[in-house]
Amino acid sequence: MKSTIKNILLTAAAVFALSACSLDVDPYGFLSGDNFYKTPSDAESALAYTYSVNSDIEYYSRHLIIATEVPTETLTIKPDAGADQHALDRLEILNNNTIVEDMWRYPYLAINRANAVILNVPNTPDMDETRKSEIVGEAKFLRALHYFNLVRFFGDVIIRDQQVSTIDQVNKGVSPMEDVYAFLLEDLLDAETRLSTERVYGRANKVATWALLSKVYLQMASAKNTGVEGYEWVSNAESNYTQAANYAKKVLQDQSTYTFEEDLLETWNVDTRIAAKEHIFVAATDRNGLLEGEYTKLPMLFMPWADGAEQVVLPNGTTIPGGGWEHLWVEDDFVANYDANDRRGSLEMIVDKVTVPGAGDEGADKELFYPGGGLQATFPTKFLDPNMIGQQATCDTPILRYTDIMMVYAEAIGPNAETYALMDQIRNRAGLSPLAGGMGLQEFREYILDERGKELAFEGQRLFDLRRTKSMESVLGGQYGKPMSSGVYYFDIPLIEVDTNPEVN
């Protein structure tokens, strides 16, 4: 799929103008019904073109991880990184921050492509009607995903339900969050009727739709329940918790395509990714791709420089390239928050030493370690590809994972024998003992928030979890002493949009 995504369609010319901001010339490069969608192959290619935005550098393959993890307690940035990234780390985020700008620009780029598919594919001649419906369902899933990201990043945003193909379509005001949620839920509920549970690597299906629905309803429920500003319109937290539980239960019980992976390390094995049990939906990449976005350099942001060694060996025996960028550092206090027996914080998942073969005296192996022994920081093993080609990696960014939905279900339901058992599955895989019973509802949900931070670390979830539970101050400020002054619960709409769209202020 990934070769199709760009090799076929990038000949359509530059597409940055489709981002719905900074349009100062007539847009070009879009795929209209007049010059495309003439064959079933056109329709499939247009859908692949829509998926391709997910794995762009500025979205899931790099900048979304920075935007959602660096402001929290999980990751920090190397000292000589860009000022905008350090501003995220300090939660001093202005409306000209380039990383935040990408969190606005790239979802709208993908939304515009999805809108084109939804508009034009139903009229594609000589195409199976069932497949047409599936393509529209996938495009609606993607559009909903991007709006879910936008509303969690920015709050009130612009609803664009038509393809932007001329400059006069750009100017449009924001809609309240209530309308944005209604719009994206309508998309997901329609997608649910169109899609099957069949798995196609890197593509959305009915299970992914159920998973995303569960997260949307949990977002509304928990934000309402904890009093997050902007969610006053949610009429009832409990009804939304119920909906979250209902859709999460479908993922856990009404399908057999995805399930819990008992082997923690196997969850992140790039060689078995196409059939991975846990990963319901990912931003898919392939190290053999021709352009970044087909392959990814995400592992380079985490991997150690290791004195520029060609290869280093991890404590579990895995060999990886040794010339990483050491750009994203795991926070020391975050690592210390793991139980001593937790495999997710041990050398299996967060590494603080490597071995450089033959780099020591008289050709002996040399050990590099953190702190003070040649490594700048600890780094996670989730985003590694031992078989990288130069800097080109296969490293799918997880978007919806089975364990995430297990915790969605447990949080929505609250403490009982079933949800304790689910959490104990996760704890057992991590090498931890079963939970002691007797927690009240609030204590149980606070425990799950902490557990989500440890289990889903570095996966682009933490900022959203802390925001929806109104925990930014208590966790980041209270527990970790992190300063915060702007962009705490919502980022400001980027200045470039404000300057070019007079209906946004």
TrEMBL record:
Chain ranges of the SusD-like N-terminal domain: 96-218
Signal peptide (residue range): 1-22
InterPro entries assigned: SusD-like_N (IPR033985), SusD_RagB_dom (IPR012944), TPR-like_helical_dom_sf (IPR011990)
Keywords: Cell outer membrane, Membrane, Signal
CDD domains referenced in this protein's UniProt entry, alphabetically: SusD
SUPFAM superfamilies: TPR-like
Any Pfam family: SusD-like_3
UniProt keyword annotation of Membrane present: yes
Coiled coil: none
Domain (RagB/SusD) ranges: 390-491
Domain of life: Bacteria
Family annotation (PROSITE patterns): PROKAR_LIPOPROTEIN (PS51257)
Family of the protein in this entry: Belongs to the SusD family.
Protein's recorded name: RagB/SusD family nutrient uptake outer membrane protein
Naturally occurring in which organism (per UniProt): Flammeovirga pacifica
